[in-house]
Structure to design on (339 residues):
């Protein structure tokens, strides 16, 4: 638990003495293949009418090659997604292949909605690839309320075809599901059992509460789930997201372009990570002056209390019916205390 002492320490050391400089650069990379999307989900800035969005675009092969050529630090994992649907980029398999050749593990999150199955088939030929699909398959009404203007029947059909391709490649995938505040423990247990039984290659399901994007509180479950005090934003210690056009931002939640600090196409990643703009941004946060940035000014993420749990097929199948239901007690308590 962070105490006032820790906040004072961060202020003195990181903010004043180090002036926002970070000696440890994360070994994780975030590259945005596209910030266009096939859906306008209620849980995402792309689905918010009042959201200020960055210009839409898709990363080219040339841009990707120039980006990776300027990564001059050891990398272990590379996320190929950010504020858009990765499968809308026809070069996504090329990106993943090049990343794997460098010894980095490619990780992709997709909405899985009516995606290009030929592209998925090509993508699954990449070694050590990890893919998860975000689908709220708790009920038709719940799915269609979030994944607009998606249809539940299309999502079910897409997941069936996805499973067939993964089975052919003898690989596995995960699902990400935003929990419904009205769902009981028994309902979550039943849905989990059905999903595992129907989809042989589904290895895990990650359940979580709806996430409140900066400045867009309606995208998340926030009632009763906000701490009294802000904390130092974890993005100040995180990898810098690289956007589809080579721009580099300070925040992986930057849908508006308000935290862009440079461009990597002609500059090494390590130089940008501790550039004057990056250090100024971190110093602003370490000294509790975050109102100086439009995105940070209206952000409640650092106060939000999340609820999440990942259910693995093997462990779940060993539980009794009562134990399966009890596994979702976290969400019952979360919504009971907040609403």
């Amino acid at each position: 638990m962070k105490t006032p002492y820790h906040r004072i320490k961060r202020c003195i050391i990181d903010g004043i003495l180090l002036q926002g400089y970070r000696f440890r650069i994360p070994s994780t990379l975030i590259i945005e293949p596209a910030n266009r999307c096939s859906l306008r989900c209620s849980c995402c800035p792309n689905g918010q009418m009042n959201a200020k969005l960055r210009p839409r675009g898709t990363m080219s092969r040339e841009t990707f090659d120039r980006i990776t050529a300027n990564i001059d630090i050891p990398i272990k994992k590379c996320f190929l997604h950010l504020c858009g649907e990765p499968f809308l980029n026809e070069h996504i398999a090329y990106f993943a292949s090049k990343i794997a050749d460098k010894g980095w593990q490619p990780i992709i999150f997709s909405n899985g909605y009516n995606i290009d199955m030929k592209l998925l088939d090509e993508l699954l030929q990449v070694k050590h690839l990890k893919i998860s699909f975000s689908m709220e398959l708790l009920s038709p009404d719940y799915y269609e309320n979030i994944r607009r203007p998606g249809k539940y029947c299309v999502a079910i059909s897409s997941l069936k075809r996805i499973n067939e391709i993964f089975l052919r490649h003898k690989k596995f995938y995960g699902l990400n599901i935003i929990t419904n505040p009205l769902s009981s423990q028994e309902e979550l247990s039943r849905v989990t059992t059905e999903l595992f039984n129907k989809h042989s290659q589904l290895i895990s399901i990650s359940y979580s509460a709806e996430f409140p994007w900066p400045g867009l509180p309606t995208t998340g479950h926030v009632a009763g789930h906000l701490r009294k005090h802000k904390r130092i934003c974890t993005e100040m210690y995180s990898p810098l997201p690289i956007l589809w056009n080579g721009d580099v931002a300070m925040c992986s939640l930057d849908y508006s372009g308000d935290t862009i600090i440079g461009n990597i196409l002609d500059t090494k990643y390590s130089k940008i990570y501790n550039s004057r703009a990056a250090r100024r941004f971190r110093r602003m946060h370490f000294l509790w002056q975050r109102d100086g940035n439009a995105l940070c000014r209206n952000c409640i993420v650092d106060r939000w209390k999340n609820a999440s749990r990942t259910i693995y097929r093997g462990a779940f199948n060993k539980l009794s019916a009562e134990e399966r239901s009890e596994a979702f007690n976290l969400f019952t308590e979360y919504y009971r205390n907040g609403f």
In short: The CA atoms of residues 209 and 307 lie 6 Å apart.
